[in-house]
């Protein structure tokens, strides 16, 4: 085992870590820097604890190395919050290179690297993390998201990784059902923070199960912030009331296969980004849902005012 253990590092701070979308120009040929700056400035004003850049929702896999660096520079120059950088690679050497590049851009703002589970075997994942930490010194947010990585790991194997893996300051639990996974992890006494994702669909039950907050994208990040603030102040009932205005929109936004296109369109309608463009293999916003989207936005506005 590496000399650097999770006990030696502070757990990732509780709250909302907003996963940042990458806005593109209308033809998807370039990153829209102005929209990205506006988006992250709004997220900061909404009260997020920090930002996760280059995650799955940020379409990092479709970006060139130069575009990834550009996106990170825009975020660093536009906000003051700490940054978790998403890592798309699964191979150890490639992960190390991505972390080194991201850390060089983000400097003191770099809080951790979000690294995906890359094997169903605990020993392989532990060796992977040991090599990463030894080479980079980075703190690790371990992401269990089989839909994106293509790798499924059992609850028992994941617990072995958390017990032995170096540098882990947080776990992002996105293998459904998430609330039992969060409950199991937190019950085993890990010092790492546990976060839900998946657009906030399971947020309330994840909080009840011991989650430290949410690490996800949503077109109304202020709704997630209000929910977690309410949970911390008033528990389940208060959090339920805070989340209620946003639940229909969360469900609408998280439709399989088109979630990214929907979310970007909602952000566009909010004036946060200029275009709702996505890059393949993501699916653009379906025009047939245009009226549906507006109804959801109008409902949120009404409930916020109530």
Structural commentary:
The structure is a single chain. This protein is α/β, with parallel strands linked by helices. The chain has one domain (6-234): Alpha-Beta Barrel (TIM Barrel), CATH 3.20.20. 47% of the residues lie in helices and 13% in strands. It is built from 12 helices and 8 strands. The chain has an 8-stranded parallel beta barrel with strand order 1-2-3-4-5-6-7-8, surrounded by 5 helices. It is globular, with a radius of gyration of 18 Å. Residues 1-7 have low confidence and may be disordered.
Question: What's the quick description here?
Answer:
The protein has 306 residues and is of the alpha/beta class.
Q: What are the salient characteristics of this protein?
A:
8-stranded parallel barrel; 47% helix; 306 residues; 12 helices
* N-to-C span: 55 Å
As for the CATH topology, it is: TIM Barrel
Radius of gyration over all CA atoms, rounded: 18 Å
Shape: globular
Helix-strand sequence: EHEHEHEHEHHEHEHEHHHH
Fold blueprint:
Elements: E1 15-19, H1 33-45, E2 50-53, H2 65-78, E3 83-86, H3 92-106, E4 110-116, H4 122-136, E5 140-144, H5 146-149, H6 155-164, E6 168-173, H7 178-187, E7 193-196, H8 203-208, E8 213-216, H9 221-243, H10 247-253, H11 259-269, H12 290-305
Parallel strand pairs: 1-2, 1-8, 2-3, 3-4, 4-5, 5-6, 6-7, 7-8
């Amino acid at each position: 085992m590496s000399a650097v253990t999770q006990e030696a590092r502070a757990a990732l701070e509780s709250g909302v870590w907003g996963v940042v979308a990458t806005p593109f120009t209308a033809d998807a040929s370039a990153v829209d820097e102005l929209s990205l700056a506006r988006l992250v400035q709004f997220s900061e004003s909404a009260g997020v604890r920090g930002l996760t850049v280059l995650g799955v929702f940020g379409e990092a896999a479709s970006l060139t190395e130069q575009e990834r660096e550009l996106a990170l520079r825009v975020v660093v120059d536009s906000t003051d919050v700490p940054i978790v950088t998403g890592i798309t690679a699964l191979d150890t050497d490639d992960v190390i290179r991505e972390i080194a590049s991201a850390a060089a851009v983000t400097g003191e703002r770099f809080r951790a690297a979000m690294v995906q589970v890359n094997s169903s075997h605990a020993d392989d994942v532990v060796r992977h993390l040991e090599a990463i930490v030894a080479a980079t010194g980075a703190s690790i947010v371990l992401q269990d998201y089989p839909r994106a990585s293509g790798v499924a790991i059992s609850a028992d194997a994941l617990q072995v990784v958390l017990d032995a893996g170096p540098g882990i300051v947080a776990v992002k639990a996105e293998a459904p059902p998430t609330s039992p996974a969060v409950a199991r992890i937190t019950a085993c006494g890990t010092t790492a923070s546990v976060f839900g994702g998946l657009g906030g669909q399971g947020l309330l039950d994840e909080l009840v199960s011991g989650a430290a907050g949410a690490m996800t994208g949503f077109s109304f990040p202020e709704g997630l912030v209000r929910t977690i603030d309410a949970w911390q102040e008033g528990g389940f009932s208060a959090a339920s009331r805070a989340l209620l205005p946003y639940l229909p929109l969360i469900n609408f936004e998280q439709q399989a296969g088109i979630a990214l296109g929907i979310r970007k369109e909602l952000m566009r309608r909010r004036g946060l980004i200029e275009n709702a463009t996505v890059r393949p293999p993501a699916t653009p916003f379906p025009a047939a849902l245009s009226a549906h989207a507006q109804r959801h936005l109008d409902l949120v506005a009404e409930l916020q005012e109530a």
